[in-house]
Amino acid sequence: MRAKDFAGVLLLAAMLMNVSLASAQDKKMKDKAQSADKSVVEVQKNVQPVEKVLAKSSEVEVDPVKKFFEDATAWVPEKPQWKYLKWGFEERIRQEYWKNWVTLSKQTSDNWNYFRFRTQLWFQTDPAEWLSVYLRLTSECRAFMTGGPAVSEDMDEIFFDNLYFDLKRPLDLPISVRFGRQDMFYGKGFIIMDGTPSDGSRSHYVDAVKATLHIDDLKTNIDALVIETNRTDRKFFRFNPTRTRTLVENEIQSYGYYITSKYFENMTLEQYYLYTDIHGQREQTNRRTEYKKLNTFGGRFAGTFWKNFQLDTELAYQFGQVGRNDDEPVSAMGTYVIGTYNFPVEYKPALAVNYYYLSGDDPKTRTREDWDPLFSRWPLWGDLLIFPFINETGIARHSNTHKLGVSGALSPLSWTRVTLSYDHLWADENTFFGTSSLFSTGRNRGDLFMAVAKFTLTKNVSCFGQVEQFYPGSYYRSEADPVFFLRWELKITY
Ligand SMILES: [Ca+2]
Ligand SMILES: [Ca+2]
User: Model pTM greater than 0.90?
Assistant: First the structure.
C-alpha cells in the first residue's frame, strides 16, 4: 500500500473510531515540557463542570478497557519516597516511520523506520526548605530497521540531562535562583522551549541561571536569564560517550528577562527581551555563515473569556545586526493568534483556529527580515514540518511562513483524547528559489493533515498514535511528492 493510501485509511479509521482532535501543539507541549504551561492548567480548571459530569458518568460505568489495564497493573507497589530523597523513572518507547521527509521525493531513499527507547531516572533532594538539588540522567538509543544514520545508535550514551540547584526564597527574600542545566519553557514555546534542537525530544536542556524576583502583591515574577547552549555536551561527564552527537549547530548565549503576570483573573500576561549572540563567532546554518547580534522584544497574552473561550496571542520583534561582515541590519517579526472554544458538554469537544506569521527575508533588500526562532526549534506545528526547513536554514528553524490552521478535539472516553487538524502554509518570501532544484517560484508551501489519538491507561502508563501527511505546494518543484509520518508511543512513568 502506498503511504498516501495508508494515511488515508488511518485517517478514516480514526474518524470512524469517533476519536477526536485537540490542538496537537498543546498535547506535545504537555508531553515535552516537564513544567507544563500553567495557563493551560488554569484554563482546564475553568472547564470543571464538564469534568464533573464526566467523573460522575465514569463512576457509574467503568470502561472495560480501562479496568483491564488498572487490574493488570494493580500489583505495582506505591513508589517509596523519603524525606530527603525523591526519585522517579520513565521509559518512553516509540516507533517512527518517515517517508520522503527531506527530499520530498519518493525517488530517493530517505525513508526511515526505527524504534527509539528513551530512559530517564531522576533524583531530587531537599536538604532545607529553601534549597533543593535535582538530577536527571537520560539515555536514548535508536534501533533502525530502514534508513538511519551511518553511525549506529544502538548503545547510546548516558548523560546529565538536568542538574541544577534551586534556591527558593532564602531568608524569606522575594528571590529564587535556579542554577545549572535545566529544561526551560515559557508560554507556548514560541521563544524558549528546546536548547538542543539537533537531538529532537531526546533532551531539551539549556545551561542557565534563572534569577526570579517575586512580586507577590501583583502576582508577578520577573526572571533574569543567562542562557547558554553548546554544540556538543562537553561540560559534563558522560557514560559511554558518543563523540559525534551534535545538539545545536552553534554556541549560543542569550541574556535577558521574562516577566510573567497573573494579576488579572483568568489571564496571563508575559513580556520579554533577549539579547543573543554566538561568542563573536560566525553562525553556521545550512545556508549562511555569519555573525549575529540579535535583540528580541515581545509579549504574550493568554486568557479565558465567557468561561469556555480561550485566546492566546503573542507578538515579537527582532532587531540587531547579522551578516558575513556583521553589517546587515535585522528587522523581523513573529506572531500568532489561537482561539479555542471548549464546548461545555459531554465528551469535551473543542474547536480551535490558529494563525502564525514568521517573517521571511526579501532577497532584494539588504535588511534581513528573516525571523530567528531562537530556542524554539521544536515540532511547533507537528513533526513533519520541522524537516522542510533543513533545506532552508536548519532543522525546525521555523521562519518565512504564514500558517492558518483549524483543529478539533474530542474525548469519546474519559481517558482518551483525539485530535484532527488541518493547516495551510504559505511562504512570506521566495528567498531560496534558484538555490536548489527543490524550490520553485510559488508561495504556497502546502497542506498538512494530522491525527493524534492519546490514551491514558493508568496513572503510570499512557500511549498515543500520530499520523501526518504533508502535500507540498507551488513553493516546491512541481514533482515534489507527499511526505508521510507515522508514530506510536508507549510511556511508562514511575
Ligand atoms: Ca532537543
Ligand atoms: Ca532582505
Answer: no
Please write the tens of the pLDDT for every residue from 75-117: 888 888 888 899 999 999 999 999 887 778 887 667 889 999 9
Residue 7 has a pLDDT of 41
Q: Tell how far the Cα of 290 is from the centroid of ligand 2, in angstroms.
A: 14
Bridge partner residues of 427 (DSSP): 401
- Residue 270 has φ and ψ, to the nearest 5°, of -135, 145
* Alpha carbon distance 449, 421 (integer Å): 6
Q: What is the structure's pLDDT at 206?
A: 97
**Closest of 84, 183, 83 to residue 133, by C-alpha:** 84
pLDDT, position 259: 98
C-alpha of residue 400 to centroid of ligand 2, in Å? 12
Ligand approaching nearest to the C-alpha of 323: 2
CA–CA gap between residue 419 and residue 351 (Å, rounded): 10
Q: From ligand 1's centre to the CA of 363, what distance in Å?
A: 31
CA-derived radius of gyration, the chain: 23
Q: pLDDT class for 13, splitting at 50, 70, 90?
A: very low
Task: State the amino acid at position 355 in one-letter form.
Answer: Y
Q: How confident is the model at residue 5 (pLDDT cuts 50, 70, 90)?
A: very low
Exposed (0-12), middle (13-18) or buried (19+): which is 321, by Cβ within 10 Å? middle
User: How far apart are the CA of 230 and the centre of ligand 2, in A?
Assistant: 29
* Residues 345-378: b if buried by 16+ CB within 10 A, e if exposed: eebbbbbbebebbbbbbeeeeeebbbbbbbbbbb
Which ligand has its closest atom nearest to the C-alpha of 428?
2
Query: Cα separation of 112 and 199, whole Å?
Result: 16
CA of 469 to the centre of ligand 2 (A): 32
Looking at this protein, which amino acid is placed at residue 97? Y
pLDDT tens-digit map of 397-446: 999 999 999 999 999 998 999 999 999 999 999 888 878 888 889 999 99
- Residue 148 amino acid letter: G
3-state SS, residue 386: helix
Question: Which CATH number among 3.20.20.510, 3.20.20.140, 1.20.58.760, 2.40.160.100 corresponds to the domain 3-493?
Answer: 2.40.160.100
The amino acid at 95: Q
In the reported structure, the alpha carbon of residue 289 is separated from the centroid of ligand 2 by a whole-number distance in angstroms of 16
CA nearest 488: which of 2, 90, 116? 116
52 Cα to the center of ligand 1, angstroms: 37
Q: Which of 103-107, 239-243, 337-341 has the lowest mean pLDDT?
A: 103-107
Confidence of residue 287 (pLDDT cuts 50, 70, 90): low
**Distance of CA 200 from the midpoint of ligand 1 (Å):** 4
Q: What residues sit around ligand 2, an ion, with C-beta below 5 angstroms?
A: 361-362, 365
Ligand nearest to the CA of 247: 1
